[in-house]
Amino acid sequence: VPYNFTVFPNYMGNFGQRDAQHELENYAAVVDVSCYELAALFLCNVFVPKCGSRGQVVRPCRSLCN
């Protein structure tokens, strides 16, 4: 991921990076197909959300989903 600080629980209800990584492995096929080049970034934002400068969750940009 292109950031250093993350927040848990994530959007999927995981309380740590190990749990998030384990669940994220279920989406490996989506990333490997490369039908959407930003799939990996989107999934990382959902499973390992960025922590903002004030400790808040930084949500994925709407443009990432369009």
TrEMBL record:
Lineage: Eukaryota, Metazoa, Ecdysozoa, Arthropoda, Hexapoda
A Pfam family reported for this protein in Swiss-Prot or TrEMBL: Fz
Entries under SUPFAM superfamilies matching the protein: Frizzled cysteine-rich domain
Organism: Bracon brevicornis
Gene Ontology terms describing biological process: canonical Wnt signaling pathway; non-canonical Wnt signaling pathway
Keywords: Developmental protein, Disulfide bond
InterPro entries with a match to the protein in the record: Frizzled/SFRP, Frizzled_dom, Frizzled_dom_sf
Entry keyword Disulfide bond: yes
Gene Ontology terms: cellular component: plasma membrane
Protein name as catalogued: FZ domain-containing protein
Highest taxon, organism lineage: Eukaryota
